[in-house]
């Protein structure tokens, strides 16, 4: 994997407001009533069964794993657009082949164990501008889920946000079919447009990804209520009691208890991945 720079400038307030859009910028800067200035809170999603509260404070979470370099940058603010410093942000996701560290029953045949491993997990504290970043690799996929990155924002002992960051289908498709660490014997079975968790969460967890020298950079502005105490949807860990409707071989991924979609192919797959062209 390509070595990444030792330091990276965090996203400032200007970058945060740009990420939230022009509407958020004008609202935060104008003397309009308080109700008009409120930014939409980032959607909560299921924690999934693979979270570990390790408090492993580090920015580089790769542990030498093979994969396409990805830097994940978050900027955390409240609904008025004020940066929130000194909050803990946890991040975790699967490797290029869709496997999580710290758990057994991994891989397509659920025969691999990574218990005791900590790859692709880490925690950081937001700086004075609410910014935090992680050096990682682009995540792979596993059956029943689209490409995603898990994260939490923790204020003291309370998780004020538990959610997932969804990455663009077109980039994921290219990497999974063209780059050797990601290649599999079958196509990814779930796209963003068919993932129940992504659809329910909506636009607040769709950030942006751009190409920089020797890496991709994914950015997402997180808008949280620092006083919130939301209930956390925490599915049982692998090996726990079975649920009705559980697919053969294990628990439903990330608590998604619904039939797995059939993977589109050919022209239908292209239509599902590539945004439609504007009519002239």
UniProtKB/TrEMBL annotation:
<dbReference type="InterPro" id="IPR006311">
    <property type="entry name" value="TAT_signal"/>
</dbReference>
<dbReference type="GO" id="GO:0008199">
    <property type="term" value="F:ferric iron binding"/>
</dbReference>
<dbReference type="Pfam" id="PF00775">
    <property type="entry name" value="Dioxygenase_C"/>
</dbReference>
<feature type="region of interest" description="Disordered">
    <location>
        <begin position="229"/>
        <end position="280"/>
    </location>
</feature>
<feature type="compositionally biased region" description="Low complexity">
    <location>
        <begin position="267"/>
        <end position="280"/>
    </location>
</feature>
<feature type="domain" description="Intradiol ring-cleavage dioxygenases">
    <location>
        <begin position="47"/>
        <end position="154"/>
    </location>
</feature>
<dbReference type="InterPro" id="IPR015889">
    <property type="entry name" value="Intradiol_dOase_core"/>
</dbReference>
<feature type="signal peptide">
    <location>
        <begin position="1"/>
        <end position="34"/>
    </location>
</feature>
<dbReference type="InterPro" id="IPR000627">
    <property type="entry name" value="Intradiol_dOase_C"/>
</dbReference>
<keyword id="KW-0560">Oxidoreductase</keyword>
<dbReference type="GO" id="GO:0016702">
    <property type="term" value="F:oxidoreductase activity, acting on single donors with incorporation of molecular oxygen, incorporation of two atoms of oxygen"/>
</dbReference>
<keyword id="KW-0223">Dioxygenase</keyword>
<keyword id="KW-0732">Signal</keyword>
<feature type="compositionally biased region" description="Pro residues">
    <location>
        <begin position="237"/>
        <end position="251"/>
    </location>
</feature>
<protein>
    <submittedName>
        <fullName>Intradiol ring-cleavage dioxygenase</fullName>
    </submittedName>
</protein>
């Amino acid at each position: 994997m390509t070595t990444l720079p030792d330091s990276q400038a965090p996203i400032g307030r200007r970058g945060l407001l740009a990420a939230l859009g022009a509407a958020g910028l004008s609202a935060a800067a104008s003397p309009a009533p308080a109700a008009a200035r409120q930014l939409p809170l980032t959607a909560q999603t299921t924690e999934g069964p693979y979270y570990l509260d390790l408090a492993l404070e580090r920015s580089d979470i790769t542990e030498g794993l093979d994969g396409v370099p990805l830097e994940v940058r978050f900027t955390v603010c409240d609904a008025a657009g004020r940066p929130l410093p000194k909050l803990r942000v946890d991040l975790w996701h699967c490797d290029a082949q869709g496997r999580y560290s710290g758990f057994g029953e991994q891989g397509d045949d659920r025969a691999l164990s990574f218990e005791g491993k900590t790859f692709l997990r880490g925690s950081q504290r937001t700086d004075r501008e609410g910014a935090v970043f992680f050096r990682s690799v682009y995540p792979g996929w596993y059956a029943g889920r689209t490409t995603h990155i898990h994260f939490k924002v923790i204020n003291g002992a309370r998780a004020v946000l538990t959610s997932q960051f969804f990455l663009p289908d077109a980039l994921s498709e290219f990497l999974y079919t063209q780059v050797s660490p990601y290649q599999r014997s079958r196509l990814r079975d779930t796209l963003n447009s068919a993932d129940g968790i992504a659809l329910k969460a909506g636009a607040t967890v769709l950030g942006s990804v751009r190409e920089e020298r020797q890496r991709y950079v994914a950015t997402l502005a997180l808008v949280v209520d620092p006083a919130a105490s939301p209930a956390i949807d925490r599915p049982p860990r692998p090996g726990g009691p079975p649920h009705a409707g559980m697919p053969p071989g294990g628990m439903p991924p990330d608590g998604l208890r619904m039939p797995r979609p059939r993977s589109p192919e050919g022209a239908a797959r292209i239509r599902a991945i590539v945004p439609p062209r504007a009519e002239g």
